Amino acid sequence: MLTSTVCAAVSAAGLGIALVTAYRKRFRAAIRLAAWSLIPVGLVMTGVVDWLTGLVLKPTVWAGFGVLALSALLFLAGRAADRRGGRREGRRAAGEAPGRGTVAPAASAPSLGPARRGKPASGDEDFSDIEAILKKHGI
Q1: I need a surface site. Which of 38, 62, 126, 136 has the fewest CB within 10 A?
Q2: 38, 72 Cβ separation under 8 angstroms
Q3: Is the model's pLDDT at 101 over the cut of 60?
Q4: Does pTM top 0.85 for this prediction?
Q5: Under DSSP, is residue 29 helix (H, G, I), strand (E, B) or coil?
Q6: Any residues with CB less than 8 A from the CB of 10 and at least 6 apart, and which?
Q7: How many Å apart are CA 14 and CA 28, to the nearest integer?
Q8: Could you tell me which of 88, 60, 68, 62 has the C-alpha nearest to residue 76?
Q9: Residue ranges of E strands in 1-139
Q10: Structural contact between residues 44 and 32, judged by C-beta atoms closer than 8 angstroms
C-alpha cells in the first residue's frame, strides 16, 4: 500500500516536471521525462512492485539467499581442495605411484648446464651431476 502511494507520487512529480519542460518548448525532453515517470505506475499496476516488496521484506527469502551463498562457497572450497592436492593424496593412498599423473615431472625445473652458469665445462663436472642423480635414486 505504501509502495503504491510512493510510486504514484514519483510518477506525478515526473509528469509535472515533464509538463514544465514541454511549456519551455523542449518537447523531446518532455516526452522522455513523461515516459520515465510512467514506469513506476505501470509497475504498480502489473503487480511487480508487490512481488518485489514481498521478496525483499521477507526474512525467509534472505535466509534462502544465505543458504545458496553457503552452498556456492562450499562448492568453491571443494574445488580449491581438489586443486591443492586432495586428489593426489587419494591416489597415493590407493597405491598409485606419486608421479604417475604427470606427463613430465622434471619439466618444470629448467636444466642449466655448467656452461650456462659461466663455469668452464670439464669432464668431471658433467659426471658429478649424473653421479648426484644416481645417488639420489639409490643406484
Answers
A1: 136
A2: no
A3: no
A4: no
A5: helix
A6: 37, 40
A7: 15
A8: 68
A9: none
A10: no
How many C-alpha atoms does 83 have within 13 Å on its Cβ side?
6
Closest CA to 40 of 80, 3, 74: 3
77 is written with which cell numbers? 572450497
How many residues in the chain? 139
Cell representation of residue 113: 648446464
Cα 136 to the center of its chain, rounded Å: 44
Cell numbers representing residue 120 in the block = 668452464
Determine contact, residues 30/21, Cβ cutoff 8 Å.
yes
- Report the distance separating Cα 79 and Cα 131, nearest Å: 41
**Nearest residue to 40 (alpha-carbon basis) of 29, 31, 49:** 49
* Residue 109 confidence class, pLDDT cut points 50, 70, 90: low
> How far is Cα 136 from Cα 127, in angstroms, rounded to an integer?
14
Closest CA relative to residue 32, chosen from 42, 12, 18: 18
For residue 116, the SS3 value is coil
Residue-level pLDDT at 56:
82
